[in-house]
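<backbone_tokenisation>
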Amino acid sequence: MLVEEAKGKQADGSNTPHYDLRQIDCDPNFWYPVAWSHKVRPGKTFAARYAGHPIALIRPEYGSVYALEDRCAHRQVPLSKGVVDDKGCVKCCYHGWAFDRAGKCVTVPYLNKEGVGRPVKSYPCREKSGLIFIFPGDPALADKVPVPDVAQVGNPEYKTRMFSPRLKCHYTFMHENLMDMNHQFLHRRQMGSITARFLGQDKGDDFLEARYSFARKGGNQPLAEALIFGKHHDYEDREQPVEEVVSIRTTYPYQTLQIHDKDGDLIMDLWTSYVPLGETQQVTQAFGLLSVKKPKWNFLLNLAWPALGIFTHRIFEEDREIVEMEQNAWRELGGDHNVEVFPVVKSLRALLARSGVPNKYAHPVETASKSEDAA
């Protein structure tokens, strides 16, 4: 009830309460990835989670994958420990109760009559771009909400890599980290001395986009960066011109980063979704796909691919350490003490606050700045 009332108050724009952003849950009425397609093999089950809810993914030998609550209705043991029969149903490993894709119990083998076993919850489930998505919210809304387009998966002009790190932090820290390109000092050991230059922003009810270019102030350009974006020269007597535009966009609840060259061509496309695992949503599973435009000589990108993987991994590990430090500070201080000064991040925090749902531990706070809503 608290969740529904709080969501309503935030939506109508009057007497809007402010909540600690780290107690704002993801809105469940969107499609969230919970597994890579290749992890769920034909005739097998797979255990996943969303916000404290155990999910069993089942792929029959023939037919599409489906998702059920990962608890047998009988003794609540995981259905993901069961087996898939030749009809595509999942049979509990304990007593062999069988459930179909709608969650209906179709067999209690030792009673041999219908209507005995209780059903389990089913989730709308879709497969796209190498990911398995579920719709954890109101099932009646699932067909009205589009499954997101993911980077350049399937586009032969791009080479794509996947990544799925787990982070010990609230999903909102990840949105803030990527949106705020002013933290390049953190990555000085990987990227040398570069400065982000803010070029502008666009925003709406459900999105925020910020654009940047970068100027190198010193240090050598990393090989992987040079092979993808071209050589950046040092201009001792003048500022480096805009050679690429980096656009970071949160279209709730997803986030993208695109890089266009000086001719406007898309040369890199990153898509990511931050999926909460636990009930308090302070542990996050990221699912991301990074697409890079193939150069005229494709073998150059293939040669650079391992170096690109190492480079992006090192950058991410620095970001991981920082956001987990932020989460630890939140716990130790008993709440969100961030003093934000960058207007873009203020706008992002307002977007995440009004789009998400205050959880059962949330209570209105007086410290939130109303300027974040107006930024």
